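SUBJECT: A protein chain and its fold
Encoding: whole-number codes for local backbone shapes
Chain under study, with its fold:
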Amino acid sequence: MSEVLTAPKLHDCRDAFTAVLERLAAADDRIVAVCNDSVGSSKLGGFRSRWPERLVNVGIAEQDLVGVGAGLANGGLLPFVCGAAPFLTGRALEQIKADIAYSNANVKLVGISSGMAYGELGPTHHSIEDFAWTRVLPNLPVIAPCDSVETAAAVEWAASYPGPVFLRLSRVGVPDLLPEGHTFEPGRANLLRDGGDVTLIANGTLTHRMVRAAEILAARGVEARVLNMATVRPMDVEAVVAAARETGAILTAEEHSVHGGLGSAIAEVVVAELPVPMRILGVPGIFAPTGSAEFLLDEFGMAPAAVADAAQALIARKAANA
């Protein structure tokens, strides 16, 4: 049977983000947007046209970006602080730690163009460390939606949540996987496909690749469970333990370093609760080269067919350990 699958329609999650942000802002004049010379890349042009007095552009000054957001929150406003993920998290990590997380400020951090979305601009613009940097901070939920539906739902939830949030969005188009009207629940994984042979877990741009890998595996006679783990912190411990117990092997994939990200967070649960064979796919502890995000993901073994091959190797490990 052929493993070639029809390409689905792709959606830019930034469009879902700004559509919900504008709708919420129309009903709540506390909502303001703060950006770092990133009106275009954050797709805040419509917001600026409707409420120019409610958009603050600090220029290319990410530490000021986060500090201004904290100050606005302290003044009773509800700021969505938007910027390219590598610079929002890398240049302003101290401010995120002290001004946002430690202070438990009601600021919504929106990392745009995360992962390797700026692939051709090279390692300076890749954001493959941001899960590791942010998930260790207390008080800060870390969320990477898998599609435009989940993005919209996560923005709704973030606006209602009385504390800081880090929302990780890509500019790379992805197909919609979740049904319209989906309600986002922090710390709750979504079961996209059930199976008992192996569990595939991902978030963000990798989730749809895991679904395609599961379809390839099904054609090979292997039934894979697929979990969308949008929330890196807090982790859905129950879903991870159930996957370990019921499938006996877990494979993760992420647009991030293999160190400190989603796979590491899941491994922490597995080793403490129910050790089973695991494999973490991602950038293997190096600076990724230049190239499109799609090319780089394929290069690092995260094409759907390659994921399927890795899953079968993991199942063989499980059998050898039985």
About this structure: The longest strand covers residues 250-257. Residues 1-5 have pLDDT under 50 and may be disordered. The chain is about 40% helix and 20% strand. The two ends are 30 Å apart (CA to CA).
